[in-house]
Fold this protein.
Amino acid sequence: MPDLSYARITRYVDPASPNPGSGYTSWSTAAHEISTALSAMSGGDELIIRDGTYTGAINMITAGSIPSGSIGNYTTVRAENTMGVILDTQ
C-alpha cells in the first residue's frame, strides 16, 4: 500500500518554459534544466521531462542526483512521451 503520509509533487522540465518558477510544478513554470528540477525534488516526487534533446552537464542525471523514495512511494523520472527525450551530455 502506498505511503499516504506524503503527497507526491509532480515537477516539470521544459527548456522553452516562458516563466520558470521556483517549484516547477506546471508546464508554464517548468525548470529549464534537468538538474535544477532534480534539486527541487524530494523522495517520492515525480519529474516529467518535455520531449527533446538535452545537452551539457546541467542536464546530466547522475547517481545520487535523484532523491530516494521508499516502498510504495517511488521517486519517478520520465519523459513526457516514451522515447521522447535524448540526453547528450558530452
